[in-house]
Amino acid sequence: MTMLISYMAKAALSAAAVGALLTMLRHAAPRASGLAAAVPISSMPALFWLSMEHGGGYAATVALGSFWGTGLTALLGVAFARLTSICHAAVAASLACAAVGILAALIWTLPAALTAMTAFALIVVLTGRTAQSHSRSASQRRAGGLIESVLSMGFAGVMSLLVAEVAKHGAPQVGGLVATIPVVGTCALYSGHRRGGAPVMLRVLDGYLTGMLAKAAFLGALCAAWSAGVGSWAWAIALAVASVALLAQRNLRSVRNFSLRSEP
């Protein structure tokens, strides 16, 4: 009975965190909503519970899987953004998911390849305007409704429990990978499409991909800090590293935009 109550409390806290985030997304600009959706709102609760129950060393292994999963998610977003320019969004999503899924299956047992793939995907996000739409005339309808929010919160609660169970009974890295399934990001993209079609959806995706670098920095720093045995200080270190990464990316983007405006 005590274990059931503990599970329910964990699921409720995770769902509440997602609900608070989705409430903010309802009134945010498309790119800002995408950036907020990149916050590791599903993986953070799971990593917290695992670190409390099994220690930082075990949680670091799960965080490594989440780091790889973030790279795969970024690669998925980049592929989707490119494919939407040549085919329908649904077809683009199917092709991108199939391609990234096959790649993940092929290299999952090769940590060096996964790390290199993650670095490559994040460099692409950092150096290129991967998902911006040039159209600004799309109609602005209301973001996702109550049913979408409830479903997202339910998925988040289930995800928190699933990650904990997978990490305990299977490979920890697989649990970390499950934690990075982009539930909130997918809902944000769908809401963006409802608000203004593909142009708004792509601006949401642009923000979401921007957040991938900070998310990867957070998870990578968390893994390294726990591996170094710093305990609960790992959270503060990871947040600081993610903030620096986001600020550096913002400055780089500003410089790039200024250079583009200065060109004859």
Q: What are the key terms here?
A:
264 residues, 81% helix, 10 helices, mainly alpha, globular
Q: How would you describe the overall organization of this protein?
A:
With 264 residues, this protein is mainly alpha-helical. 81% of the residues lie in helices and 0% in strands. It has one domain. The protein has helices spanning 2-25, 30-37, 43-54, 56-83, 89-107, 111-127, 146-169, 172-179, 183-227, 233-262. α9 crosses α10 (233-262). It is globular and about 50 Å long. The termini are far apart. The relative contact order is 0.18.
Tally of extended strands?
0
Alpha plus pi helix count: 10
Please state the average pLDDT score: 76
| Secondary-structure element series | HHHHHHHHHH
Helical amount among residues, as a percent range? over 70%
Q: What about the largest sheet?
A: none
- Please indicate the percent range of residues in DSSP E strands (runs of 2 or more): under 5%
Q: Which spans have pLDDT < 50 for at least 5 consecutive residues?
A: 133-144
Shape type: globular
Distance from N terminus to C terminus (CA atoms, Å) equals 70 Å
- Which structural class do you get from the secondary structure elements? mainly alpha
Number of domains: 1
Report the C-alpha radius of gyration, rounded. Answer: 18 Å
Write the layout of secondary structure elements.
Blueprint: H1 2-25, H2 30-37, H3 43-54, H4 56-83, H5 89-107, H6 111-127, H7 146-169, H8 172-179, H9 183-227, H10 233-262
Helix pairs in contact: 1-2, 1-7, 2-9, 3-4, 3-7, 4-5, 4-6, 4-8, 4-9, 7-8, 9-10
Concise account of the structure shown:
81% of the residues lie in helices and 0% in strands. With 264 residues, the chain is an all-alpha fold.
